[in-house]
Amino acid sequence: MAGKLQIINYALRLLKQSPIVDIADQNERARVASDMYEMTRLTAFSTCDWHCLRKRIKLVRDKEEPAFGFKYRYLLPVDCVRVIGVQDEEHGFFIPYLGGMFPDDMPSDLTYTVEGKYLLSNQDECRIIYIVNEQDTSKYDAQLTNVFTYLLALNMAVALTADNSLTAALENKYTYFLKTAKAKNALAEAHPALTTPFVARRF
User: Fold this and answer.
1) Is the pTM of this model over 0.85?
2) S-S: 12 plus which of 17, 59, 110, 126, CB 3.0-4.6 Å?
3) For residue 109, which of 71, 148, 149, 65 has the smallest C-alpha distance?
4) What is the pLDDT of residue 110?
5) Residues of the chain under the 50 pLDDT cut
């Protein structure tokens, strides 16, 4: 797969800019790329359930309990970009993270949330799947590399070009590639139906 410099130069070519030889080059293109790369990489990681970035781990329960709402809190790994799901102890499958707080009538054993560097849960053991902060670009699949590159081009566009039509075209392609990646990731994995009193009352 493409290396860091290759990704940057591909993004520059999308902006109709000359490539750079090194990220430390003393020119505007290299400085802008250096400023935007890390922020863009982490943003790209958070946009989709990238299978190439998945990691599984059993979390260590923190000694301090949450003030209210949950029984336990667990320290997230330092390389965690985003939690994908928490394993349901009874059934073994992973409950997807939807963000925020669930409604009050959601069964308490199926609720969890992320606050800062902690995951809050009512389960006395906590196993998660998460997106890892992987800096080795050789481990990115083609879809992630493509989405990352187009997003990097978009983030550099304001500083390097005044071509609004080019920026709009790149944004359309980025949106298309991201939507395609999400669809392919979803098709690659089957999730069991989750039947709960919360669901039953609504269907």
Assistant:
1) no
2) 17
3) 71
4) 65
5) 103, 105, 107, 192-203
Give the chain's radius of gyration (CA, Å): 20
Contact (CB, 8 A) for 148 and 7: yes
User: Do the Cβ atoms of 141 and 51 come closer than 8 Å?
Assistant: yes
The pairing of beta strand 112-115 with beta strand 94-96:
unpaired
What are the φ and ψ backbone dihedral angles of 116, each rounded to 5 degrees?
Answer: 65, -130
Which tokens in the block code for residue 114?
A: 């992320």
- 8 Å CB contact between 111 and 69: no
Q: Measured between alpha carbons, how far is residue 166 from residues 154, 160, 203 in Å?
A: 10, 12, 46
**Cα distance between residue 50 and residue 141, in whole Å:** 9
H or E stretch covering 72: strand 72-75
Backbone angles phi, psi at 121, to 5 degrees: -155, 165
Predicted pLDDT at 157 = 95
Contacts with 145 (C-beta within 8 Å, 6 or more apart), sequence order: 1, 2, 7, 137
Say how far apart CA 180 and CA 153 lie, in whole Å: 19
pLDDT at site 19: 96
DSSP H or E segment with residue 165: helix 164-187
